[in-house]
Write a structure and sequence with these properties.
With 93 residues, the chain is α+β, with helices and mostly antiparallel strands. The chain contains two helices and four strands; from the N terminus they run αββββα.
Amino acid sequence: MIEPRLKSEIRVSAHIRRAQGEGAFATVARRGDPDAGAVAVKIYLGSRTARLFIQSRDLDGRAIWREPFEEIVSEEQIDRWLEKEAEIGPLGD
């Protein structure tokens, strides 16, 4: 069964409120389509390293988070990957 889809801007706003409620800092680095835009979350780990999570759908249509990198990588590597993906087209979904 396919889950109903919320607008991207609503999902992102909820994620930011949740992070801030837990004492973390969160911000939107780039805006895309407010209705169906892709959601990518970069988590800074310190020492210029980070992890990247992309919201996607599984085969049953459920929202999942996937990691395009199998390990912790540099922030610069993630930023280059995101730039390249933005040139190609939308992420996920």
